[in-house]
């Protein structure tokens, strides 16, 4: 399946909202990250050197190297989210769809996660489409905003802030 401008389904990675069942999954960090490579394997039944190297690279990128053999369910919520983000990176680097990636995380871990996501977008040229109820973070980190509320808005962050009905809390923008 080809979408637009040559983008294929295999070019899109997904980080879902986490459920309690997922939090208790009995697999190692490396096994979960490696499972993100399944879409690129075709009919091969085993992971090859390329998939293993990509998983190791994603684990390193997310700062999880010391945890790669640890059981996923033994990790903190923030560590689990970084594992799932590393898994999504193995699935694709063109576009990442993130569904509430910081839900349930404490403020420090939330800030770290947003920083990782921002870095993926700005330094790795990964397109990030993120669903979030955190309007402040959207205004701080996003280039474009789709806001669905009493009315629907789509445009740049500056246009969003300029709207008469834009919330006052976002006026500061990104602290660079």
Task: Tag the structure with descriptive keywords.
3-stranded parallel sheet, globular, 176 residues, alpha/beta, 7 helices, 39% helix, Rossmann fold, 14% strand
SSE blueprint and pairings:
Blueprint: E1 12-15, H1 20-23, H2 29-34, H3 49-61, H4 77-91, E2 95-99, H5 107-124, E3 127-131, H6 135-141, E4 144-148, E5 152-156, H7 157-162
Parallel strand pairs: 1-2, 2-3
Antiparallel strand pairs: 4-5
Query: What gap, in angstroms, lies between the N and C termini?
Result: 40 Å
Q: Using only CA atoms, what is the Rg?
A: 17 Å
- Within the largest sheet, what's the order of strands? 1-2-3
Percentage of β-strand residues: 5-15%
> So, CATH architecture?
3-Layer(aba) Sandwich
Describe this structure as you would to a colleague.
The structure is a single chain. This protein is of the alpha/beta class. It has one domain (9-133): P-loop containing nucleotide triphosphate hydrolases (Rossmann fold, 3-Layer(aba) Sandwich), CATH 3.40.50. It is built from 7 helices and 5 strands; from the N terminus they run βααααβαβαββα. The longest helix is centred in the middle third of the chain and has 18 residues, at 107-124. The N and C termini lie far apart (40 Å).
């Amino acid at each position: 399946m080809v979408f637009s401008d040559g983008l294929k389904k295999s070019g899109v990675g997904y980080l879902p909202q986490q459920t309690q069942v997922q939090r208790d999954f009995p697999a190692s960090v490396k096994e979960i990250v490696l499972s993100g490579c399944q879409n690129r394997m075709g009919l091969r039944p085993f992971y090859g050197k390329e998939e293993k190297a990509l998983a190791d690279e994603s684990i390193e990128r997310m700062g999880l190297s010391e945890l790669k053999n640890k059981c996923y369910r033994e990790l903190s919520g923030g560590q689990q989210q970084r594992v799932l983000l590393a898994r999504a990176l193995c699935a694709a680097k063109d576009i990442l769809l993130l569904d509430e990636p910081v839900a349930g995380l404490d403020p420090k871990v939330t800030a770290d996660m947003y920083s990782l996501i921002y870095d993926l977008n700005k330094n790795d040229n990964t397109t990030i489409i993120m669903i979030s109820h955190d309007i402040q973070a959207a205004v701080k980190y996003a280039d474009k905003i789709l806001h669905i509320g009493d009315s629907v808005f789509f445009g740049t962050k500056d246009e969003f802030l300029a709207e008469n009905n834009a919330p006052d809390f976002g006026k500061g923008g990104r602290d660079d």
